[in-house]
């Protein structure tokens, strides 16, 4: 969607605050021994308190409130009884709907102490998101954002997962345009446009496949993944971060 009134912006920001709170509350509870289902319940409680609903459930009948992906799982991991272990990386990818407005964000959190390579992987995704946010301005081709993200990831020795991209958002989870993490000739960003930027990156070559559960996307080579995401409103200057 494109924002064209202060009321719309306020409503979108309200959803963004719920998403940020859910991620914060889940992140506080990440430790060896906690199950992904328990973390999902934390998000469910935050949503309930604010009258928000799960975007993945509403739009796709996803079998969870949030998408919780561990290690070589890139995206759309299903919450369940599986318990986290020291050294793992968990991606807390949360999309909420409140009063018809959607916001989407993700943070990668280490489980206890993780290896230096995993730390560098997380830092690369986070830094690439920052570069993408700096590049996202009205009048700029969306491919410029992808190039900024991709350059930062490869500079740090990792690879983006090319088939997983950011997207327009607002009245549904996935709207136009696609926001891939690569250089391409796409549409031009416009003032007020609401998008996500989300570098989903792997320590290996970034090739992925769909797991038997029909949801979880995993790396072929078993390498770890990191993922940070924000929802933002494009402006002539610095974007408005909705999920910070
Ligand atoms: N949060 C995901 C994204 O960033 C969307 C998940 S919807 C699902 O695009 F149903 F596929 F899980
Ligand atoms: Co997301
Ligand atoms: Co997204």
Instruction: Look at the structure and give the CATH class.
Output: Alpha Beta
Strand content: 25-35%
Specify the CATH architecture: Alpha-Beta Complex
Helix content: 25-40%
Head-to-tail CA distance between termini: 19 Å
What is the typical, i.e. mean, pLDDT?
Answer: 98
Low-confidence stretches: none
Give the ligands present. 2-amino-4-trifluoromethylsulfanyl-butyric acid, cobalt (II) ion
Give me the count of strands: 15
Q: Largest sheet, if any?
A: 4 strands, antiparallel
**Helix segment count?**
5
Give a summary of the structure in a few sentences.
The protein has 244 residues and is of the alpha+beta class.
Keywords:
244 residues, alpha+beta, Creatine Amidinohydrolase, four-stranded antiparallel β-sheet, three-stranded antiparallel β-sheet, 15 strands, 32% helix, globular, binds 2-amino-4-trifluoromethylsulfanyl-butyric acid, binds cobalt (II) ion, protease, aminopeptidase, metal ion binding, metalloaminopeptidase activity
Structure overview:
By secondary structure, this protein is an alpha+beta fold. It has one domain (6-241): Creatinase/methionine aminopeptidase superfamily (Creatine Amidinohydrolase), CATH 3.90.230.10. The protein is 32% helix and 25% strand. The protein contains five helices and 15 strands. The strands form five sheets. Strands 1, 2, 4 and 5 form a four-stranded antiparallel beta sheet that branches. A three-stranded antiparallel beta sheet has the order 3-12-11, with no helix packed on it. Strands 6-10-13 form a three-stranded antiparallel beta sheet, covered by helices on one side. Strand 14 and strand 15 form a beta hairpin. Helix 1 (6-29) runs antiparallel to helix 2 (36-50) and helix 4 runs antiparallel to helix 5. The longest helix is centred in the first third of the chain and has 24 residues, at 6-29. The relative contact order is 0.18. The mean pLDDT is 98. Bound molecules: 2-amino-4-trifluoromethylsulfanyl-butyric acid (MF3) and cobalt (II) ion (2 copies). One cobalt (II) ion binds at residues 93, 95, 104, 106, 229. A divalent metal cation 1 binds at residues 93, 104, 229. Belongs to the peptidase M24A family. Methionine aminopeptidase type 1 subfamily.
């Amino acid at each position: 969607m494109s924002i064209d009134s202060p009321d719309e912006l306020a409503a979108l920001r309200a959803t963004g605050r719920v998403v940020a709170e859910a991620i914060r509350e889940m992140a506080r509870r990440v430790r060896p021994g906690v199950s992904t289902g328990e973390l999902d319940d934390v998000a469910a409680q935050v949503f309930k308190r604010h009258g928000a609903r799960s975007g993945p459930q509403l739009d796709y009948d996803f079998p969870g409130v949030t998408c919780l992906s561990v290690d070589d799982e890139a995206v759309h991991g299903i919450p369940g009884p599986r318990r986290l272990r020291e050294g793992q990386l968990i991606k807390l990818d949360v999309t909420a709907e409140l009063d018809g407005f959607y916001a989407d964000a993700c943070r990668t959190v280490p489980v206890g102490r993780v290896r230096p390579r995993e730390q560098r992987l997380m830092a690369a995704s986070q830094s690439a998101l920052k570069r993408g946010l700096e590049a996202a301005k009205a009048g700029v081709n969306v491919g410029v954002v992808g190039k900024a993200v991709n350059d930062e990831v490869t500079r740090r020795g990792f690879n983006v997962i090319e088939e997983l991209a950011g997207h327009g958002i607002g009245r549904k989870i996935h709207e136009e345009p696609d926001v891939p993490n690569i250089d391409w000739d796409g549409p031009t960003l416009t003032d007020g446009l609401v998008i996500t930027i989300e570098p989903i990156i792997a320590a290996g070559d970034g090739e992925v496949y769909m797991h038997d559960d029909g949801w979880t996307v995993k790396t072929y080579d078993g390498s770890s993944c990191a993922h940070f995401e924000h929802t933002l409103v494009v402006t002539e200057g610095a974007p408005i971060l909705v999920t910070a």
